[in-house]
Structures are given as C-alpha cells and as structure tokens.
Design brief:
Blueprint (H helix, E strand, L loop, with lengths): L2 H8 L8 H21 L6 H6 L3 H5 L5 H4 L14 H29 L1 H32 L6 H11 L3 H14 L4 E4 L3 E4 H21 L3 H20 L6 H17 L29 E3 L8 E3 L11
Antiparallel strand pairs: 1-2, 3-4
Length: 314
Amino acid sequence: MNFIDKLERKYPRFGIPGLMKYVICLSIAGNVIALIDMSGILPFQIYTGFLSLDVYQILHGQVWRLITFILYPTVGFGGNMSSSMVFIDLIWFAIWAFLYYQIGTVLEREWGKFRFTLFYLGGVIFVIIVAFVFFFVYRAIIAGAGGVGADELLGLVVGSKSNLEYLNQTLFLAFALMFPEMRFYVYFILPVKAKWLAYVYLGLMAFHIVQCIIISDYFSLTLILGALVNFAVFFIFARGSGSIKGSVREKRRKNKYKKMARPHEVSRDGSRHKCAICGCTEITNPEREFRYCSKCNGNYEYCSEHLFTHEHVQ
C-alpha cells in the first residue's frame, strides 16, 4: 500500500465532487474580469490589483490572493488586443472549456474524487510555493546588487506569471495515457488519436522549455517542469486503473482473459468483445477499446465511444 492509498483510507471524505466544473466556472469568471479590465470602465485593473498571486501584497495582508489567482484570465491578459483577436480568443476558450470539462470529468470518474482533487490541488500548491521561492530569491539578488524599493514591482511581475496553464495541460496527458486510442476531431473535422495529440503537447512543452532557457525565464521553466513532475510522481505512486501500474495490470488481465476464453464465448466472426450500444467489435473497429461498466447491473460491455455516454442499466 503506497502513501496515496494510506491517505485515501485516512481521509476518505477528502475531495471535491465535480471539481472540474468549478475550475471551468472560475476560468469563465476570470475572463469576464479580463474583459472589464480591457474596457477601461474602472480606473484600476481588477486582476493584477486585487486577485493575482502577488507575493508582496500577500505578505502585507492580502491573503485571499492565495486562492483568487486561480481566476487567471486567458483572454486579453498582458497587452492590448483588437476586438477581432479577443473574439477569437473567446472562441478558443469556449472549445478549451468544453474539452477540459469532459477530460476532467472522465479522470475524476476513473480515479475517484480523492485522487483527482489531490492531483489538481498538488499542482496548485506547487505554483504557490514557486511564486514565494522566486520572490525571495529575486529580492535577495536585487538587494545584493544594491537595488532598493523593487519589492512591489517584483511581486507584480511574479503574480502576472503565476497561473495553472501547464497543470491543465497535464490533465490531457493523463487522459491520453489512459485512453490512447480515443479520437479527437481537430477543428471538428480531422480525427486524431489522443496519443498523437499527447506527443504534440509534449513537443510544445519541450519548445517552451528551450525558449525559457534561451531568454532566462526560469520562473516559467520551473512551472513547466513542476507540472510534469507532479504528473509523473502521481502516476508512479498512484494505483488503480488511472495509474501506469494499473494500466499494465489491466492489459495483463485482458490478455489472460483472451487466453482463458472458451470457444463458445467467441462469436461467429471471431470477435470476443461487442459494444452493447452500437454493436461494434474489435474486428469491425480495431481502433476502439472495450470495457465493462461497473455501474451497470449485469455484464454490459461498451466501446470507448459509448463507455462514458451510455445510460446505466439498473
């Protein structure tokens, strides 16, 4: 029994049901705030002025920023944008919100609320720790160089860079590791398997790592590496169907089942698996995975396209 299993036994009620729903709602609220800031209605910036992870302001009593920085906007933050660019950003955000809500819901269903909350909360805490560490390190460097009075500006810069972008990207990596054959329709037209999109994500992260090294942006570099470490550690030590060890055991179980299957369990076309919804098999649709639903009353098997969308048989 690893430490995550022990934690779950000790704190079985820990976890936020439907966590991704709240994450998406906070992201929507953050973008609404960004649009207000861009409009110039108020004489101050709401997010950077009161909500960002500004360590200087936190140390001076604004402790709510430890939570409200999650409202980090993805639209129009960090510069002036035209109306058309803002509209395009809003469209992409809507697609992102829908996709990641589905991914987060599936991960929570597979791992359970305890593990999913622990995974996401661990990433959030890491961002907070990195922000504080870099604030004090940079302040010491500036003080050693003879600079004074830069604490407030330093807190503002660190707060503007503190976000959960890379943590959210690791959610997709986790999903792709569990369901590599699941298809996504890029631009709603081109079907691409999750494993290939995961390689694209990793490639983009590698590009960002190199870019951060070139421009000496060690803060963003640490956020990227930290998100990947959080992802790797969780999958190494966590058990169940969502972990690497669990995935290996699942494959072994499937192979053992195929070897032990009796002749009459094989259909006329030679298939051993059949979706209870669409009737496809591993022969007609070799790209799909087949699993039994533990919530259905009886042995009902579904393909990867209908495993999470069917109505449970009671």
